[in-house]
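Dear colleagues,

As part of the handover before I leave the project, I'm documenting each prediction I ran so the next person doesn't have to rerun anything. This entry is a single chain, and its sequence is reproduced below.
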Amino acid sequence: MLYRFFCITGLILAGVSASADVLVLDSGESLSGSLIGIKEGTLTYKTSLSGQMMVPMDTVKSLVTDKNFVITLGDGSARYGRFSNKDSASVILPLNGTDAEAVDLRGLKEALLIPSSPSAPSLMGGPAAEGTAASGDLGVRFHSGGKDGFAPVLRGELGGRDDTKAWSVGITGSANDNNGGLDYLNAEGRVKGVGGGLNPYLWAALDRDTNQALALRSHLALGMYKAFMPTTNNALDAYLGLDVAREQWNPNDVNLPGGTEQRSDVALHLGLRYYNLLSRHLTLIGALDLFPALPELGGLRATTETSLLFPLNDRLRLRLDFRVGYDSDPLVGGVSKWSASVGAGVGVNF
């Protein structure tokens, strides 16, 4: 089962092809390749046919990139985004999805690549900028709260954004040391509106964690959210909605007596999503979800996840993950209310 999971996820991610940057010179020549950077009036560009080349900026007519850069303008101010064209004029498309900004390419001081994505699609509910983004990670995780131990983990993420909506799907799984099956699984999908003020969102997920005797939890949340402080290098989204969940527990997974139990819950969903580009490369992503039960006061389920992304080159990166879970009323007696895991792996942006 685990082998099939790894193979299918790998094939899906491998099928996402990367776009190329397009450089047009005053001579009319159009080059497809990758922008390495801009510094001191010179553009460094790489093509499959000519390799790496240096181009004076006063010969550049237009530039379109599929990756994000830290762009220093002639007045010394910085912008975070990618180069594009709009109405035959050169523009910068900001990371936060705000309106395009006209730019004088020949007046730029510097442009440095941002290797890591500013937000993980599955945590933020879609990439920060318009377009699609995909990534995959392979690593290990240490989990506690039940059967402590290490396990390999595989993560895949895909998301997109346009001028009306953002969406994402993500799947994370780790292997059981005993039989090769999945002892941990988180699969989720999100769709949310994009624009000023309040916007609707829909979030569906499946969870499995045999370390906590959780055989399966399915839930569906629907509500409204608002984006706060959407600047060029950080964002904060706040969510408020209603969540319906169906849970199934198995005491045998943690060597406790008893048969399979299940329940259904209706709860509020209170959520926060946050990312920050700490430096020109290092990215911090955070998520907090609270589910206060409605039928009984005092019941609470909560999860928090934090990720740090360290770039290795323009596509590869290191990823550190920290996750903490809490359930005030687990169905299985003897199971800890708290769970935690820490993971590390190498990922690739497609």
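The longest strand covers residues 261-277. The radius of gyration is 23 Å.

All the best with the project,
I.
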